[in-house]
Design brief:
Oligomer: single chain
Largest sheet: 4 strands, antiparallel
Keywords: Signal
Protein name: LVIVD repeat-containing protein
Strand order of the largest sheet: 3-26-25-24
Organism: Yinghuangia soli
């Protein structure tokens, strides 16, 4: 279930209100942001043609409608051997339960663990900026360690120096204006928020520098996945989304301390290729494209890589509420106050005019699949340290290996299609922490529905020792519940089940040799041993309770935990490799875990050295 908390206690999709009709903004021809010699697809899109599909020229009616039908209840479910058979395919259906024989009647309030110790637990609204997803970063100031946890307008700053006594330093919210990002309040200016962020130490500025994404909002009221209300059938909703104001791009800040008042804005960068000057863009009118998606890749040096659709012609995606199909850009960050675009790359088929290539994808027309990047390139070794390759995962477009040794001229080395897994997010994350050791990368999507009402999202083991010929060589083991749980498969536990991510490359310290920690929704945090790629194992886990206890912190009228938030349980992990602590982020709070056998002795106090830059 993915219902954003914009009004306390009231899920967005359950509020009444008509779609807002708005005129489609006419694109203004302007200087192209892409480097000289870029493809014609990077040029500014033409104005809408009257009578075009859905009154918008960039809605991809390339293939006939083949949206999956609801799965026959008899075609999936518990098997006689105790395993679960997933549906072959399903439509987007994120908000409805799908009970089956053998599913638990209620959400599980027990927790389970193996080979881990819970060092601390923090529950309540102060530790739950959002029930469904948050980002994290860590900085060190004055001998203290701080963690940021945030999702757009909801942000928190914690002092985590003492793992067993975490303190809330700052809280940011827009609840007093019903979550409306067009309205300013005590925390935010109009159209401002806390987007996905990387923070690295800049030797030039002798300080932390934060690069923050500003992107399309993914949970929106103007469009819904259902036929008749999605982008394919609802021109008024599409026009309303196009008409939204706000920066599409990224901002760069110098951090003079851990709280928002310490953010010093260095640059505001638009990735809209129709803008004449990316450093001085028009914010009074709607901007084109997706903006910078998720956590930008930057290690504090010269090169920045982002996932982005630079204009509205980057549109070939089947997902019913998303208007853009993101490729990638490289930027020169030699001067953080003046980033310079170097190159733009996309896979053929993503952009209007490339319909022949798009039609070859078996997902074309299914009005379900996310097509395009959700995160920037995954880079195992920075270019400045001799790194040559970036790994791109683009949902239903699969895996592409790029040669980024010259960031001003990114080149495709190879491409690998992955088996369709519709619905849910097919290709989202790549863990490259083991690539330099074993040549293996780990590719995963994540589930969007409850009760396993979609194909399982495996974590693919891909052998990329020869970057020209990457190949699937296995999957990481599927987590199974302990016997004490009374169930044989996590699908029975209710909620979403499947991998999310292994945190981010911004984690302090150097990733452990052979250990991957994944957030796994209702299966909690799963610790995988991949030292021997031929025999990956689950060596530890922590599965927390499904939801929180009664407290007036929760945004419901009676103070109880809202039913609509119970299904999205463990949605994130963040590992302090330098202190051997794993932070687990759930729908009801935060847990701090240690595992001496897996990670080594934990440091529950001040880190020996401050975090400065990501290690690879």
């Amino acid at each position: 279930m993915r219902v954003p908390r914009t009004i306390p206690g009231i899920p967005l999709s359950r509020r009444s209100g008509a779609f807002v009709a708005a005129a489609v903004a006419t694109a203004t021809t302007a200087a192209l942001l892409a480097p000289t010699g870029g493809s014609a697809a990077d040029a500014a899109p033409a104005a809408a043609t009257p009578g075009s599909a859905a009154n918008d020229p960039n809605i991809p009616f390339v293939c006939d409608n083949s949206r999956p039908q609801a799965a026959d209840p008899g075609s999936y479910g518990m098997q006689l051997d105790g395993s679960f058979l997933h549906p072959a395919s399903t439509p987007v259906d994120e908000e409805n339960p799908h009970p089956f024989p053998g599913r638990m009647d209620d959400y599980d309030t027990r927790s389970y663990s193996k080979n881990v110790k819970i060092e601390a637990a923090y529950e309540g609204e102060a530790f739950t900026p959002d029930f469904f997803h948050t980002w994290q970063n860590i900085v060190d100031f004055g001998g203290r360690r701080y963690m940021f946890q945030y999702d757009r307008s909801e942000g928190r700053v914690y002092d985590i120096t003492d793992v067993k006594n975490v303190q809330v330093v700052e809280r940011m919210s827009r609840n007093d204006v019903d979550g409306d990002e067009s309205k300013a309040n005590g925390s935010w200016a109009a159209y401002d928020y806390w987007g996905a962020t990387t923070i690295q130490w800049s030797a030039k500025l002798n300080s932390y520098v934060m690069v923050m994404s500003f992107e399309d909002k993914r949970q929106i009221s103007e469009l819904h996945p259902e036929p008749g209300q999605d982008k394919f059938d609802n021109p008024a909703g599409v026009a309303a989304v196009r008409a939204k104001k706000g920066l599409k791009g990224f901002k760069v800040f110098k951090l003079n301390g851990p709280t928002k008042k310490d953010w010093q804005l260095l640059s505001t960068v638009s990735t809209d290729s129709t803008q004449a000057d990316p450093l001085n863009s028009d914010l009074a009118n709607p901007q084109q494209g997706s903006g910078s998606l998720d956590v930008p890749y930057w290690d504090g040096g010269k090169y920045l890589f982002i996932a982005v659709a630079p204009n509205d012609t980057y549109a070939n995606t089947e997902y019913p509420t998303n208007l853009h199909s993101a490729g990638y850009q490289s930027w020169d960050m030699s001067d953080p106050a003046k980033p310079k675009l170097l190159d733009t790359w996309h896979l053929e088929g993503q952009v209007k005019g490339e319909e022949a290539a798009y039609a070859k994808n078996p997902r074309c027309g299914n009005r379900t699949s996310w097509m395009g990047a959700r995160m920037p390139l995954f880079i195992p070794k920075p270019v400045e340290q001799g790194g040559k390759y970036g790994f791109a995962i683009q949902g239903g477009f699969g895996l592409t290996v790029l040669d980024i040794s010259n960031p001003a001229d990114m080149k495709q080395v190879s491409h690998l299609d992955l088996p369709p897994s519709v619905a849910g997010t097919e290709g989202d994350n790549i863990d490259v922490s083991q690539y330099e050791k074993t040549g293996m990368i780990y590719v995963s999507g994540y589930p969007l529905t409850e009760d396993c009402y979609e194909p399982y999202k495996p974590i693919w083991q891909i052998d990329a020792r020869d970057p020209a010929k990457p190949r699937v060589v296995g999957q990481l083991p599927r987590p199974t519940p302990p016997k004490t749980s009374g169930i044989t498969d996590y699908c029975q536990r209710r909620g979403s089940f499947g991998p999310k991510r292994t945190g981010y490359y911004t984690n302090p310290g150097k990733p452990d040799n052979g250990t991957l920690v994944y957030g796994f929704y209702n299966a909690g945090a799963q610790f995988f041993d991949v030292k021997n790629p031929a025999r990956p194992e689950i060596e530890a886990y922590f599965v927390p309770k499904a939801y929180g206890t009664k407290t007036q912190d929760w945004p419901s009228e009676d103070g109880s935990f809202p039913d609509w938030a119970k299904g999205n349980q463990t949605h994130g992990v963040y590992t302090e490799w330098d202190r051997n602590i794993v932070w687990v982020f759930t729908n009801h709070g935060i847990y701090a875990l240690s595992s001496r056998d897996v990670l080594g002795k934990p440091n529950l106090g001040r880190p020996e050295q401050p975090f400065r830059n990501s290690q690879f």
